[in-house]
């Protein structure tokens, strides 16, 4: 018995040694893999796994194999912190997360504290979709990098487009009742008032996040308000169900959305028959006409069996590789320094910039509408036969906003 | 204004009837056996997924019959091999069994069908607007759901009130031991009742699946409201559950339509005080709290009238 204990005492640390020397960069993917956000979370996971495979096929990052380790946070901030700690315990030094700004804010705070308490074992937070502006303003962090445009940047781009559309007179705002939804509504109010003071806001609704099973009562309200356009930041099942209820009721308005392209959205829009009346703001989409992106889309669809919702994930992983090579290290502190002010040619064409001041990535923003495909548009969505069509492209300089970030640097 | 009232009433009735469809089985089981079946919403979810799978294989209409039968069979097995054994350990054990079952079913469903929503669509035969009120369409499928709920209500009521089976069920409701002493096989009656209750949940799932979203968390999102319906309606009362479903459907729908808040009724708090917790509460609109109103109703009913609206048994 004593011999056995001795053997274990000798062997176990050796396993530890082997594991530590193993040549992988672990990226903890913390997003909903169950609950109302699961469909979006699973899509993101597939995308990152595809990107990791792609990097590994070309020799990984500085010879290190890239591994995506999934953690289910159920879109819940508390659960996220538990999962983040689990990830760090499992050897993760890079965390990527996107769904839910409430989650993103909690994670940003967690990473800050972790890095203060554990010098030499810093963790970086790569944010690919949590777009609450405060994350790169008053709550900005040196350890946080965001590849998606903040909701403020998107609203800036949207209102710059809307200010020239004379047919818009009555706007209805409907958003999820948490930090992101609230910032969409307040930015929309502020920017519309500045750029189109003649536009009337006929409704400003907040509803519980991912809890509503039937949006018919809300659709009845939108209808009664006489709105001609709706602006919504809804995502996950909340946008799919909202559009579905609109389709059932036969509501005919223009929809300006952040996330109508997520799982279930395109199917619902096709059912509405709202041909080119649902608009979306993204950093890229399937039919941009940019050849490299369209080739990429084709290859991605063939392997992942879904469309590429997250061109920014491609940008994120490619920039990670570039930064690591520039720093000649996969140490998070050195990677972070190398990412600052890094210029990068984004997947959908044009040059983006990871601004040093707030770690917000600036890139061209597209407004696209969903409907029947034109001749030069090869990609549909969810087998509906309809796809996204380019309406307007806002170049990087016009999509930049100022920041109030006062970053504490290590 | 009038159009909003009419449309909200229609929406409320439609949602209420869906709630009844879901809770009828639960209230039958609850009243008969005194078991608060936490897995009821899971049976509903099973119904939706079976409906989806069978629709893919053999079409919607055969699925509408087969899926509830399958769920009913599972329900009977659960009663025979699970609940019956735990029965002697009292209600808490039964409750815990169904509680565990709910989690197990959710995990199994997500293992088989994944966690993303499945593409369960309204059958082509019913995919058209039935009528239009104030330029708002009402899909034929929702009217079909309404009709099924009413048929189930009437059939259940007749079976419970006018047949021999109903007589035994009714008797067991107030005097469960006496029924046993009279020589009825209470065990078999329990199993049948549990089977029928589960099958009703399954039926609700097959029908509601295409109208809402069929995914592995649908049980969790609709489960709690069902308990509100049966407690509010009254333990063991089918008409009570019917009325409670309607009331909750209407209350929730109308609450969404009301933008008013305490601030709009009584004026804002002293603006000099600035934003405060009190100010936040003062400014919350009725629409924002709509989803929690049914639970407030539950609390109030339990305090004021514990047997519920039309309850018959103090328990």
Major sheet size, sense and barrel closure of chain A: 7 strands, mixed
How much of the sequence of chain A is in beta strands? 15-25%
Multimeric status of the protein: heterodimer
Q: Kindly name the structural category of chain A.
A: alpha/beta
Termini distance of chain A? 50 Å
Quick check: average pLDDT of chain B? 85
Portion in helices of chain B: over 70%
The shape of chain B is globular
Distance between the termini of chain B: 44 Å
Side by side, the strands of the main sheet of chain B go 1-2
**Widest sheet: strand ordering of chain A:** 7-6-8-9-10-14-15
Q: Sketch the topology of chain A as an H/E string, one letter per element.
A: HEHEHEHEEHEHEHEHEHEHHHEEEEE
User: Low-confidence runs of chain A (pLDDT<50, min 5 residues)?
Assistant: 13-21
Q: Total number of β-strand segments of chain B?
A: 2
In percent, how helical is the residue content of chain A? 40-55%
Major protein interface = A-B, 34 and 41 residues
Care to describe what's here?
Chain A: Residues 1-20 form the signal peptide. Chain A: Belongs to the leucine-binding protein family. Chain A: This is Branched-chain amino acid ABC transporter substrate-binding protein. Chain A: InterPro entries: BCAA_transport (IPR051010), Leu-bd (IPR028081), Peripla_BP_I (IPR028082). Chain A: It comes from Bradyrhizobium ontarionense. The complex is a heterodimer of chains A (410) and B (315). Chain A has helices at residues 2-21, 38-57, 77-89, 101-117, 151-162, 179-195, 216-225, 237-249, 265-272, 291-304, 311-327, 332-339, and strands spanning 24-31, 65-72, 94-97, 124-127, 144-146, 170-176, 200-207, 229-232, 254-257, 278-282, 343-345, 351-354, 361-362, 365-372, 386-394. By secondary structure, chain A is an alpha/beta fold. A seven-stranded mixed β-sheet of chain A has the order 7-6-8-9-10-14-15. Chain A has a five-stranded parallel β-sheet with strand order 2-1-3-4-5, with helices on both faces. Chain A has a three-stranded antiparallel β-sheet with strand order 11-12-13, with no helix packed on it. In chain A, helix 5 (151-162) packs parallel to helix 6, helix 7 (216-225) crosses helix 8 (237-249) and helix 8 runs parallel beside helix 9 (265-272). Residues 13-21 of chain A have low confidence and may be disordered. Chain B is mostly helical. Helices cover 74% and strands 3% of the residues of chain B. Chain B has 14 helices and two strands. Chain B has helices spanning 2-33, 40-58, 60-87, 91-113, 140-162, 164-174, 176-181, 186-211, 218-233, 238-257, 262-266, 277-283, 286-289, 293-304, and strands at residues 129-133, 136-139. Chain B has a two-stranded antiparallel sheet. In chain B, a hairpin with a 2-residue loop joins strand 1 and strand 2. In chain B, helix 2 packs parallel to helix 4. The radius of gyration of chain B is 21 Å and the shape is globular. The relative contact order of chain B is 0.18. The mean pLDDT of chain B is 85. The A-B interface holds A 33-36, 38-39, 42, 177, 205-208, 211-214, 216-221, 223-224, 237, 240-241, 248-251, 263-264, 267 and B 1, 3-4, 7-8, 11-12, 14-15, 110, 114-117, 119, 129, 132, 134-139, 142, 212-213, 215-218, 220-222, 252-253, 256-257, 287-288, 290-291.
């Amino acid at each position: 018995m004593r011999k056995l204990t001795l053997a274990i005492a000798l062997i176990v640390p050796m396993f530890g040694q082997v594991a530590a020397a193993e040549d992988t960069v672990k990226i903890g993917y913390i997003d909903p893999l169950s609950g109302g956000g699961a469909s979006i979370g699973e899509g993101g996971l597939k995308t990152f796994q595809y990107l990791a495979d792609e990097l590994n096929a070309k020799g990984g990052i500085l010879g290190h194999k890239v591994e995506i380790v999934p953690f289910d946070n159920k879109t819940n901030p508390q659960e996220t912190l538990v999962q983040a700690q689990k990830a760090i315990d499992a050897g993760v030094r890079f965390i990527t997360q996107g769904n839910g700004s409430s989650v993103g804010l909690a994670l940003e705070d967690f990473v800050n504290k972790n890095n203060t308490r554990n010098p030499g074992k810093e963790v970086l937070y790569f944010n690919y979709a949590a777009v609450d502006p405060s994350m790169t303003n008053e709550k900005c962090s040196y350890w946080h990098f965001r590849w998606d445009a903040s909701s403020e940047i998107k609203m800036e781009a949207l209102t710059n487009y809307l200010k020239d559309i004379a047919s818009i007179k009555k706007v209805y705002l409907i958003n999820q009742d948490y930090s992101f939804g609230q910032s969409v509504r307040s930015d929309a109010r502020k920017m519309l008032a500045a750029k189109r003071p003649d536009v009337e806001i006929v409704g400003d609704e907040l509803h519980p996040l991912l809890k509503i099973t039937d949006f018919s009562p809300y659709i009845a309200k939108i209808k009664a308000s006489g709105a001609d356009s709706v602006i919504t930041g809804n995502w996950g099942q909340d946008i799919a169900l909202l559009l579905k209820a609109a389709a059932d009721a036969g509501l005919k308005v223009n929809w300006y959305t952040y996330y109508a392209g997520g799982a279930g959205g395109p199917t619902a829009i096709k059912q509405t028959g709202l041909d080119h009346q649902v608009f979306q703001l993204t950093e890229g989409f399937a039919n941009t006409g940019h050849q490299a992106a369209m080739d990429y889309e084709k290859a991605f669809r063939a392997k992942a069996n879904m469309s590429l919702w997250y061109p920014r994930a491609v940008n994120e992983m490619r920039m990670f590789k570039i930064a690591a090579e520039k720093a000649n290290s996969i140490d998070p502190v050195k990677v972070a320094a190398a990412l600052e002010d890094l210029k990068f040619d984004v997947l959908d064409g044009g040059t983006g910039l990871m601004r040093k001041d707030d770690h917000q990535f600036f890139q061209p923003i597209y407004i696209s509408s969903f409907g029947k495909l034109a001749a030069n548009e090869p990609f549909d969505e969810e087998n509906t036969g309809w796809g996204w069509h380019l309406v307007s492209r806002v170049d990087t300089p016009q999509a930049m906003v100022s920041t109030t970030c006062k970053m504490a640097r290590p | 204004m009038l159009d909003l009232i009419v449309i909200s009433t229609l929406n409320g009735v439609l949602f209420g009837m869906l709630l009844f469809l879901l809770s009828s089985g639960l209230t039958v089981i609850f009243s008969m056996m005194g078991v608060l079946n936490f897995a009821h919403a899971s049976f509903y979810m099973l119904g939706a997924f079976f409906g989806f799978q069978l629709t893919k294989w053999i079409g919607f209409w055969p699925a509408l019959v087969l899926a509830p039968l399958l769920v009913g069979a599972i329900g009977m097995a659960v009663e025979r091999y699970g609940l019956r054994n735990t029965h002697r350990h009292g209600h808490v054990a039964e409750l815990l069994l169904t509680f565990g079952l709910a989690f197990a079913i959710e995990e199994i469903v997500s293992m088989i069908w994944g966690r993303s929503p499945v593409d369960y669509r309204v059958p082509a035969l019913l995919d058209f607007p039935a009528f239009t009120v104030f330029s708002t369409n009402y899909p034929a499928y929702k009217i079909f759901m309404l009709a099924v709920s009413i048929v189930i209500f009437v059939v259940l009521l007749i079976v419970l009130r006018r047949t021999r089976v109903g007589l035994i069920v009714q008797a067991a409701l107030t005097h469960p031991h006496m029924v046993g002493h009279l020589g009825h096989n209470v065990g078999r009656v329990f199993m049948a009742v549990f089977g029928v209750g589960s099958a009703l949940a399954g039926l609700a799932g097959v029908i509601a699946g295409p109208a809402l979203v069929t995914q592995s968390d649908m049980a969790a999102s609709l489960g709690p409201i069902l308990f509100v319906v049966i407690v509010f309606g009254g333990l063991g009362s089918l008409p009570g559950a019917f009325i409670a479903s309607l009331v909750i459907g209407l209350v929730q729908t109308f609450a969404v339509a009301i933008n008013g808040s305490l601030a709009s009724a009584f004026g804002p708090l002293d603006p000099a005080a600035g934003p405060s917790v009190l100010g936040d509460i003062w400014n919350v609109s009725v629409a924002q709290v709509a989803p929690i109103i049914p639970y407030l109703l539950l609390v109030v009913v339990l305090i004021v009238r514990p047997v519920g609206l039309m309850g018959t048994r103090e328990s």
